Amino acid sequence: MVTGVMNIEEGASLPAKNTFQVFMCSIIAAVGGLMFGYDIGISGGVTSMDTFLIKFFHHVYEKKHRVHENNYCKFDDQLLQLFTSSLYLAGIFASLAASYLSRRFGRKPIIMSASAFFLCGAILNFFAQELGMLIGGRILLGCGIGFGNQTVPLFISEIAPARIRGGLNLMFQFLITIGILAASYVNFLTSTVKDGWRYSLGGAAVPALILLIGSFFIHETPASLIERGKDEEGKRVLRKIRGLEDIELEFNEIKRATEISNKVKSPFKELFTKSENRPPLVCGTLLQFFQQFTGINVVMFYAPVLFQTMGSGNNASLISTVVTNGVNAVATIIAVVMVDRLGRKFFLVEGATQMTATQISIGALLLKHLHLIGPITSRSVPLIVLILICIYVSGFAWSWGPLGWLVPSEIYPLEVRNAGYFCAVAMNMVCTFVIGQFFLSALCRFRSALFFFFAVMNVIMGLFVIFFLPETKGVPIEDMAEQRWKKHWHWRKYFKQN
Ligand code: BGC
């Protein structure tokens, strides 16, 4: 199987112009990130809207307004959490299906289907009359996200010339953050409108429509065409996207890669049984596990709920969310610009340290000021928490956010790259589901201790990076084993010494 996630150096000698076609195709595909981000950002605000709670979760609404209700348990409800997390459950199965279907039918039809699923989900949610319709809509959105997240990053890597592959790849994460920001702003606007939640949820149709229309204009990737025996068409597309007549060199490279990887009949079996694949499998999958256990989606999903828990009004908490999401988008640009200079490990360790410090501070503040019953009396505490959350989010945005996706795409050997990448996507979905489903209950039970738990996780992941993750910056992808894994103090034992 050919996947195009190759790194910058791998094809550095291959001639290519930076064509309009490549930028257009990458930007259109990255709109898949906008869909993902819009969804991440919309659910928190919607679940804090009274009209939404009255219609679908009346008991939560009543509980929220009971004066003597425990502060930490206001929103604890399994069904309410299922509204947020059902999407990710569907996403896991959808991305598995996508990894198979995109190999068989190409990347383009899968990207088109992703937007179609997402559009249907948005429409169903807009018209939702009962909980079943709402959850049904979420499942359709989840299929869209699963198809998109599995295919878009691979698509961009396959279409981009090697030199600018890293930067174009991070555009996916950048559009995720723009989607989150847009969603929180939409929530802010709709919160005062009658049945505003309908417009918030229906708004997901906008990125879906952009992707659907745009996907008619993108090219199928040469790698996918050649992989499926359509050599002439593959050459035609290569000429177009590289802006050159002579593309024989790159064509032959892809052909060679196809032949090698086609020998592997069962990439998943190869991935799980061959000991040499263990180091990237462990590191790539754990990176996504840790990405979620930074606690980022506690902020992304439930920031408005958290701010309300601390006693901020409805509007103030939605504005605070727009602010944190703005910080998220801006800080991501720093990663895009600096990650090929300062390296992956620097950002991962720095980010984990920054997040540890802020989680401890937030936990300590809540422990001191947010008692079980009654609002926070100090007026400055919610503001300090907002500032701390911004520092926390920026730490994530230039480290574990983009690198959680980039590193798994550059550490696998070609023949198991697609299967390995699926494991990272699936781990992301599983952990996002767990956080989405259990955070509010955990907040109710463990209160501020939860923030200390995430702080400990951040320490563990920082140590993991220091001791177990090799630096991948500037290493040709096909040399990763020779230059890194085989020389690593721990991972080298998985390789037969010759
Ligand atoms: C993560 C999401 C997260 C987002 C925040 C992504 O990389 O996978 O779970 O919500 O970043 O920007």
From TrEMBL:
Keyword field: Membrane, Sugar transport, Symport, Transmembrane, Transmembrane helix, Transport
Protein name in UniProt: Major facilitator superfamily (MFS) profile domain-containing protein
Tagged with keyword Transport: yes
Molecular function via GO: monosaccharide transmembrane transporter activity; symporter activity
Subcellular location per the Swiss-Prot or TrEMBL entry: Membrane
Stretches assigned to the Major facilitator superfamily (MFS) profile domain: 25-473
Transmembrane segments: 20-38, 79-98, 110-128, 134-156, 168-187, 199-218, 281-305, 317-339, 381-399, 419-443, 450-469
InterPro entries to which the protein is assigned, alphabetical: MFS_dom (IPR020846), MFS_STP/MST-like_plant (IPR044778), MFS_sugar_transport-like (IPR005828), MFS_trans_sf (IPR036259), STP/PLT_plant (IPR045262), Sugar/inositol_transpt (IPR003663), Sugar_transporter_CS (IPR005829)
Similarity comment: family membership: Belongs to the major facilitator superfamily. Sugar transporter (TC 2.A.1.1) family.
UniProt source species: Brassica campestris
Membrane topology: Multi-pass membrane protein
Main location: membrane
GO cellular component: a single term: membrane
Highest taxon of the lineage: Eukaryota
Coiled coil (UniProt feature): none
